[in-house]
Amino acid sequence: MPDLVVVIPSRGRPESVAALALQCQRTCTADTVLLTVVDLDDPTLPQYAAPAGTTVFFAWAPETSGHVGAINFGAARALEEFKPFAIAKLDDDHRPRTKGWDTLLLDALREMGTGIAYGNDLLQGANLPTAPVLTADIVEALGYMGPPALTHLHVDDFWRDLGREAGCLRYLPGVVVEHMHPLAGKAVVDDGYARVNAPEMYAADGAAYQAFKAEGRLAADVAKVQALRNSAGEVNCGAG
């Protein structure tokens, strides 16, 4: 039973996953497992492999599952097969820079008991948890890591809002998990970036998240997380 399973949704970027795996090997100090989720119809699927000296587990998601679908697929596999204390999501363009980043975030979660912790991605900073770590009891209680109504965008808004409204969101500014994103000038815009950042995607996922909140589903999820905290008697939640 690892402390942490890192779910890495990826499509068309086997080389990015290899680079992330090597960086995690250099920086992880906890019992951390990497679980990469790749769509079965990804034309680059045969190229995905763990680089020498690393261990990466792979899960093959339904065809064109979408970003959030792949995250949820991986989170479900993590719960079933690994039973970790916590589940993280890193995109294939995240690069942990702080030695022991996983241990530091896990320590924050253990202090809270139930909650969401995240570090500084050098792009959104405290504003959005683009690389969150959730205690596994949250994922199990909700039945998903991100709302299935979303395809790609606004899932980090969900993690922020869920943790903030449930009173158990912790930001560690000294823990750097750099997001090598085109918006930061750290990557070129490939087909994947162009597809998921298209105006149509922003409009569809924006409307879906607004409906999720308006229909009371965010409030229901917040209540479930608060119930977890209350049942365990947690008192140390809150933004750090």
Structure keywords:
about 240 residues, Spore Coat Polysaccharide Biosynthesis Protein SpsA, Chain A, globular, disordered C terminus
Structural shape:
globular
CATH topology: Spore Coat Polysaccharide Biosynthesis Protein SpsA, Chain A
Largest sheet: 8 strands, mixed
Level-2 CATH architecture: Alpha-Beta Complex
Unreliable runs, pLDDT <50, ≥5 residues? 235-240
Helical/strand content category:
alpha/beta
Strand content: 15-25%
CATH class: Alpha Beta
Total count of helical runs of at least 4 residues: 8
In total, how many beta strands?
Answer: 8
Helix content: 40-55%
Give average pLDDT, whole number: 92
Number of domains: 1
Order of helices and strands: EHEEHEEHEEHHEHHH
State the strand order across the main sheet: 3-2-1-4-7-6-8-5
Question: What is the subunit arrangement here?
Answer: single chain
First-residue to last-residue Cα separation = 28 Å
Outline:
Helices cover 41% and strands 20% of the residues. The chain is an alpha/beta fold and 240 residues long.
What can you see in these coordinates?
By secondary structure, the chain is α/β, with parallel strands linked by helices. The protein has a single domain, classed as Spore Coat Polysaccharide Biosynthesis Protein SpsA, Chain A (Alpha-Beta Complex). Helices cover 41% and strands 20% of the residues. It has eight helices and eight strands; from the N terminus they run E-H-E-E-H-E-E-H-E-E-H-H-E-H-H-H. It has an eight-stranded mixed β-sheet, sandwiched between helices. Helix 1 links the parallel strand 1 and strand 2 (32-39). The protein starts with a strand and ends in an 8-residue tail after the last helix.
